[in-house]
Amino acid sequence: MKSQIYSVFFVLFITHFLSAQSVIQQDSYNLSGGILLSFSDNNHPDFSSKTTSFIFDPALTYHLLDILAIGGTVHIRYSDEKIKTESGSERSIERIFELGPRVRYYFHNKNFAPFIDCTLHYSKVLPEKTEGYGFAIGTGINYFISKSVAIEPRFSLTLNYYSNPKYDLQTYQVGVGLNYHINE
Length: 184
Fold this sequence. Notes:
- This protein is mostly beta strands.
- The protein has 1 helix and 9 strands.
- The protein has one helix at about 1-20; strands spanning about 30-45, 50-55, 60-65, 70-85, 90-105, 110-125, 130-145, 150-165, 165-180.
- The protein starts with a helix and ends with a strand.
- Residues about 10-20 have low confidence and may be disordered.
C-alpha cells in the first residue's frame, strides 16, 4: 500500500514539473501574505532578552521587469519577550506594526522562482509607544502550484533601531507565505 501511495505522489510531482508555468511577468502584480516565526536576542545596556514572535505580513508588489518587483509591505507582529535584568526576570507582551517599501529580485525558471528581498520599514511598538526604523534582507523560493499561485518558504534577517528607549534588535525569521500573481 505504501508503494502505491508513493507512486501516486511521484507521478503527481513529475507531472507538475513537466507542465511549465508562466510564472512571473513584467507589468504584473503580486498580492502576498505570510506567517513567520522569529527568534531574537536583544542586548540593551540595562538588560538582555530573548523574544519569540509570530508575524503576519501582507504585501503588494509590481513587477517592473520579469526579475524585479517593487512595492510595499505591512508587518503585524505579536511578541513574547523574556527579559533578564540584574534584579531578576520578567515577561513582556508587545504588538509591533511595521510599514515600508520592498524590493525583490527573482531568479526564476519554470515552476521555481528563488528570490532575494530587501525591505526598509518604520516601526511602532505598543503599548510602550516606542518608534524606530529597520532594514530586512531575506531569501526564499516561490514554488508555483498553479499558473498564478505560489507557496513561498523564506528566511530573513532584520535589524531594528529604536528610540525612547534607545536600543537595537536583531531578528531571524523563518516562515511560509502564499502569493497570488495577477497577470493582465
